[in-house]
Amino acid sequence: MSRPSRLSCFSCLTGVACLALFVVDATRAQAARLGSIRGRVELRRAAPPIERRPGVSELGAATAVAVSDRLRSVVYLETAPRGAFETSEGGHAVMDQHNETFVPHVLAIMTGTTVDFPNTDKFYHNVFSLSKVAKFDLGRYAAGRSRTVRFDRPGIVRVFCDIHSHMNAFILVFSHPFFGMTDTDGRYRIDNIPPGTYNVIAWNEGTSSDPKPVTVPDGGITELDFSLR
Amino acid sequence: MSFRTMAALLLGLVGAGRAAAQVPSEPLAFGGGRVTIGADVSASFGGADPGFFNYTDYDHSALRTLRIDVTGAVRAGRHLTLLGEMRTENVDGVVPYALYVRFRPWADRNIDINAGRVPPTFGAFARRTYASDNPLIGYPLAYQYLTSLRPDAMPASADELLSKQALGWRVRYSVGDQAFDRGVPLVSAFRWDTGVQAHAGAPNGVISGTVSVTTGTLSNPLFSDDNNGRQLAGRIQLRPVTGLIVGTSAAYGPFITNALARSVSIDDGGQYTQSAWGADAEYSRAHYLLRFESIVSGWRLPLVHQPAIDLPLRAVSTSLEGRYKITPAFYAAARLDHLGFSHVVGTQVTAPWDAPVTRLEVGGGYSILRNLQAKASVQRDVRDGGRLQRRAILGAAQLVFWF
């Protein structure tokens, strides 16, 4: 084993100093009780299901595919509180390929998360993305197999299948934990938010709301509704 | 289409690339998904091809084509769908490339009956001629290269046939229609046949079969019949393991027109046929894809004068294609193709009835967007016979957009 260099000693000291600052910051945050934002995202016009391309050159009709759940939205803080970015942990999430559909259709994760892409259909899929945030091509793999991608940069990743052009999905990668997915009724909740004033945005199928300012009180819950499309 | 027009269209498409980011990449859907419309647009520009290796008729080269396909499907309930495709090449008019009704008697069974201008039963490539499905710019020889045979005209003797080697792009004969016209490929990728087609598959997709009765033949698909005969075609396809598709096809039908038969005092031209057999395989895994296809075709023509033509006139094509994705946006591809012909005995020479051709095409594609792709390829063509240029190295570029 090589001896630690002067540079690595400096890095260690810097790390300790940062940790100390973080502890102080976290202690302050704990002194104030964390709050929540909850509400509903109303979709005035839900995005229609993704249809297959007309299979004119196919000898027989294609099998029916599952309908993607395009009703779920993501609500997130546009600007995160101080200290939020140090809490990133490498988690795991799953985006299945089933019935020629990505399940879930929308995934919201933090940077550092590894997403598994299992294939539970009886035929090949080929997951890929050309998004600037994450470019990848997992190749063709059969039923029961899975491939993984780690997302280290925040942004929106559009995911497709190279074989089935009607398959697509979104992965929203955040650098902080203050986001939430709506249920099928459009209801959401974001917890553990330090008190303060933030801008909040709702997103559905590529459409974003204008940022809405909201104040989260000390230990309280703030109601915030959105209307999209 | 002139060079300038083509270049302007190509530049226009490049400019449209940025705007394409705003265009939906999914098919247009109306009426709750009952009506769907998709499109494939490709603009290819290649160098001059004085050897006519890539011509699909006297005017059109597959390497210099602006092609627009608009496809549509109208679903009328669970059992009936109307499908169609309108196509224009180099803006020379719009052709109904496909128009048929698909009837599914049992909604939950994989059995379909198609009637109208139906997809090709035979082979594998004919159903994926779209630029977005073709990893290269050129076509396999069997589907594009024009042999010197015509359904409406024929040589009077083996000597006359041998004198037409390599002239399939513009050929004339002493019997039948004596105007210049193009010959036929083994299987036409540029027209679909008209008739009735039945397709059935096992629920697990391991095996499927298709049979059809149509008006034309593989090399000469027709909208309306010109010889009172029908072509029978069939295909069986197996998927024994994930990633492997193996198919075999056969077709048999009267080839020559009634007018040609009458010109040689034959009442029934039904015995002068094109028969063909094909085998194809596709294997893919991870980032590579391999395809193989071989077609054997035989034509029978009336014998008019000595030296008589040895029948059937056979042609054998073999094509091996591979594609490998190097990065998410970039792939490399290659295709090796050979088209050979049976020998006929002339007065002075015994030779293949048309000049054998070998083609190697190497290229790649870059995805600017998911549905906007730029391709480039170089092909080397070698022809063993004929009076035209026998060797060529041709470069081409293509832009493809689809939704």
List keywords for this structure.
heterodimer, A: 229 residues, mainly beta, 5-stranded antiparallel β-sheet, 5-stranded mixed β-sheet, 19 strands, 11% helix, globular, B: 403 residues, Porin, two-stranded antiparallel ribbon, 4 helices, 21 strands
Helix content of chain A: 10-25%
Alpha plus pi helix count of chain B: 4
How far is the N terminus from the C terminus of chain A? 60 Å
Radius of gyration of chain B: 21 Å
Structural class of chain B: mainly beta
Radius of gyration of chain A: 21 Å
Biggest sheet overview of chain A = 5 strands, antiparallel
Summarize the biggest pleated sheet of chain B. 16 strands, antiparallel, barrel
| N/C terminus separation of chain B | 25 Å
Strand order of the largest sheet of chain B: 2-3-4-5-6-9-10-11-12-13-14-15-16-19-20-21
Q: Which percent range describes the beta-strand content of chain B?
A: over 45%
- Structure classification of chain A: mainly beta
As an assembly, this protein is heterodimer
Description:
The complex is a heterodimer of chains A (229) and B (403). By secondary structure, chain A is mainly beta. Chain A is built from one helix and 19 strands. Chain A has one helix at 6-31; strands at residues 35-43, 74-77, 92-94, 96-98, 101-103, 106-110, 113-118, 125-130, 135-141, 146-151, 155-161, 168-174, 179-181, 187-193, 196-204, 207-208, 212-216, 221-223, 226-228. In chain A, the strands form five sheets. In chain A, strands 2, 13, 15, 16 and 17 form a five-stranded antiparallel sheet that branches. Chain A has a five-stranded mixed sheet with strand order 6-12-11-8-9, with no helix packed on it. In chain A, strands 1, 14, 18 and 19 form a four-stranded mixed sheet that branches. In chain A, a hairpin with a 2-residue loop joins strand 4 (96-98) and strand 5 (101-103). Chain A starts with 5 loop residues before the first helix and ends with a strand. With 403 residues, chain B is mainly beta. Chain B has one domain: Porin, CATH 2.40.160. In chain B, 8% of the residues lie in helices and 46% in strands. Chain B is built from four helices and 21 strands. In chain B, the strands form three sheets. Chain B has a 16-stranded antiparallel β-barrel with strand order 2-3-4-5-6-9-10-11-12-13-14-15-16-19-20-21. In chain B, strand 4 (80-89) and strand 5 form a beta hairpin. In chain B, 47% of the residues are buried.
